[in-house]
Every structure is written in structure tokens, then in C-alpha cells.
Amino acid sequence: HSYACQTWEYECAWKHVRAGGIIASDDVGWSDTTPDNPHHAWDNFLARHGLTGSDLKIKNACWVRKP
């Protein structure tokens, strides 16, 4: 669950999801060291793609629909 690994996973999946498709991620609050020190890979992914936030968030899992 490193920042680099999660970032790679999000970007790889994003390339293959069509418009209207959904990307889901669990453990968005985890980090390289502890769950109490999140690295924000999910939030940074959303920002890079101009997304305002997750469409759905339940605890440590998030979903976003590709425009």
C-alpha cells in the first residue's frame, strides 16, 4: 500500500475504464508506515484528473465514476 504502488494502480486502471465506468479502492487511508498517517494517493489521483471527490465513501473505501 505504498504511495507509489497505489498511484500506479489507480493510473493503470483509469486508462482502461471507459466513460461512465467506476474505479473503486479500499484502504485509501493507509500509508507506507501506519493507517494513522495516510499518504493521500487517492486524493492526489482525484485531483490529477480534475475530480472533485469520491462519488461514494464508506470508511476506508472509495468509488469514483469516470466522466
Task: Kindly list the characteristics that best describe this protein.
67 residues; alpha+beta; 3-stranded antiparallel β-sheet; 18% strand
Task: Summarize the entry for a quick read.
The protein has 67 residues and is an alpha+beta fold.
Question: Can you tell me about this structure?
Answer:
The chain contains two helices and three strands; from the N terminus they run H-E-H-E-E. The longest helix has 14 residues. 15% of the residues are buried. The protein is globular and about 35 Å long. The chain has a three-stranded antiparallel sheet with strand order 1-3-2, with helices on one face. The chain has 67 residues and is of the alpha+beta class. The model has no long low-confidence stretch (mean pLDDT 87).
Count of DSSP-assigned helices: 2
Low-confidence stretches: none
Topology as a string of helices (H) and strands (E): HEHEE
Q: How much β-strand is present in the residues? A: 15-25%
Report strand order across the widest sheet.
1-3-2
- Main sheet: strands, sense, barrel: 3 strands, antiparallel
Q: Over the alpha carbons, how many angstroms does the gyration radius reach?
A: 11 Å
The structure class reads alpha+beta
Summarize model confidence as the mean pLDDT: 87
Give the end-to-end Cα distance, rounded to a whole number of Å. Answer: 26 Å
Shape estimate: globular
Approximately how much helix is present in the residues?
25-40%
Tell me how many strands there are: 3
